[in-house]
Write a structure and sequence with these properties.
Blueprint (H helix, E strand, L loop, with lengths): L8 H22 L2 H9 L10 H11 L26 H6 L8 E6 L6 E2 L11 E2 H11 L1 E8 L6 E11 H7 L2 E3 L3 E6 L10 E5 H5 L9 E6 L2 E2 L9 E3 L12 E7 L22 E6 L3 E2 L5 E8 L7 E8 L17 E2 L1 E2 L37 E8 L5 E10 L22 E6 L2
Parallel strand pairs: 1-12, 14-21
Antiparallel strand pairs: 1-3, 2-6, 4-5, 5-9, 7-8, 7-12, 9-10, 9-11, 13-15, 15-19, 16-17, 16-20, 18-19, 20-21
């Protein structure tokens, strides 16, 4: 039987009831999340009733991943043939990829030289060692949360607490004098020049931390544990506000240069090299088929980019209706607010399930974040729907940043980072 369009008065009533019921359920089930958090929510008194909706929501939220990603559950997009972390212990030792054998050259660029008084290099017998890094860490170590995201992939590789020493502390050891405009760096690449992967930053970003950003670091720990080879250990770069290609793994060389422009390997792919993380949302769980009127929950995650995150919204479009003309980014669609889940009661994945002190962005006395969502990290969100009439639908979600921009704005261009609005089909059939 052909389905009548949603403009039919009966279905209009159903839709109106759906919207009203959504508001009621959202308020009932998510009230007080600030105090409970995701982990505690699954056993909260909010779920003490016998409503089927309680079970639907409980199951959806309990299936969510932890806020922090265990090191062995990060997605891996490592480069190299073979990838350096796949080398056996003997080969890693020979390559300087253990804490006992790692060393780092910090030198001037021979093609665009910066003037240094004390370069650090193996050739001069002055290369920087892991033991030197640990001595420096005793005075300068920092920790901060960061989501690691690939520029061209629409889901995070993982979210962690990264620990290291600001790169500027190492830079100053070389006593730079003049003609220093950019710093580029690369890691172990199987001694094959064609496999080298390089990234770069303006020297000002290394020496200063604008916009309350954490520093660029020589990272040696993730979630309180030594950085393992797959995550780029023993030492990697981590750039807090940048996509993953700036956070080079298996660091071996830092080059101080007078070059006037970015010279990253990623430039060869027409990528935007210097734009920071975008704010955007995507789904984790959406049902593909439903019975008419059956309540259902949708969960997802959102990345709080450089422009922050104020809310996540969802929209279920009836496929029988035409989309608004001339609204490429659905700015005028009837979006509904989802609920951003609050900080977890226990920080699973860290020693003792607690945030180490000090960690940037966290109150040292309470162990809770100073703001939520934490910028440059991720959150989870959820929304509960009481059911839909029979038909075909498309589910979409989007983020709203702290400036009021709806995803994919203000930077909708793919090469400056993925932020396309995701579409998920839902069929409602008796």
């Amino acid at each position: 039987m052909q389905r009548e369009p949603l403009q039919d008065s009966l279905q209009q009533d159903s839709l109106q009831q759906f919207l009203v019921r959504h508001t009621e359920l959202s308020r009932r089930y998510f009230l007080g999340l600030r105090a409970t958090g995701v982990a505690a929510l699954t056993t909260s008194p909010l779920f003490a009733g016998d409503s089927d909706n309680d079970d639907i929501l409980r199951r959806a939220i309990s299936d969510l991943e932890t806020w922090l990603t265990p090191a062995d559950q990060f997605r891996d997009v490592s480069r190299g043939k073979p990838v350096p972390h796949s080398l056996d212990d003997e080969a890693r030792t020979a390559a300087g990829l253990t804490r006992e054998t790692w060393s780092l050259d910090v030198v001037s660029d021979p093609e665009h030289p910066a003037r240094l008084r004390s370069p650090l290099s193996k050739e001069l017998g002055s290369a920087f060692q892991f033991s030197d890094l640990m001595k420096m860490a005793g005075k300068h170590a920092v920790r901060f949360p960061k989501v690691m995201t690939c520029l061209n992939i629409g889901c995070p590789l993982g979210n962690g607490i990264w620990e290291g020493v600001p790169l500027r502390e190492l830079l100053w050891l070389t006593q730079p004098r003049e003609n220093l405009r950019r710093v580029f760096y690369y890691g172990f690449h199987n001694d094959q020049p064609e496999q080298m992967f390089r990234s770069s930053l303006p020297v000002g970003r290394i020496l200063e931390d604008p916009f309350d950003l954490p520093p660029v670091i020589l990272c040696y720990k993730l979630n309180g544990q030594w950085l393992d080879p797959e995550r780029g250990g023993p030492v990697r770069i981590v750039v807090p506000e940048a996509y993953g290609f700036k956070s080079i793994k298996w660091l071996s060389h830092v080059v101080l240069s007078n070059i006037s422009h970015a010279n990253d390997t990623y430039a060869k792919g027409n990528n935007d090299l210097d734009s920071p993380l975008k704010t955007f949302a995507a789904t984790i769980s959406v049902p593909s088929t439903l019975k008419p009127g059956a309540p259902f929950a949708v969960t997802g995650w959102a990345q709080s980019g450089i422009s922050g995150l104020s809310k996540v919204q969802a929209w279920i479009q009836d496929d029988a209706q035409e989309l608004p003309a001339g609204d490429r980014y659905y700015q005028s669609a009837p979006w509904r607010d989802a609920t951003i889940l609050s900080p977890p009661a226990r920080w699973a994945g860290l020693p003792g399930d607690t945030i180490p002190v000090p960690t940037m962005g966290f109150n040292p006395e309470t162990g809770q974040p100073d703001t939520w969502p934490i910028r440059l990290s991720r959150i989870h969100w959820a929304i509960l729907f009481p059911g839909l009439p029979e038909g075909e639908y498309t589910f979409r979600c989007r983020s709203i940043d702290s400036k009021g921009h709806g995803q994919p704005l203000p930077r909708p261009f793919r090469k400056s980072g993925h932020a396309a609005i995701e579409k998920v089909s839902i069929r409602v059939k008796a």
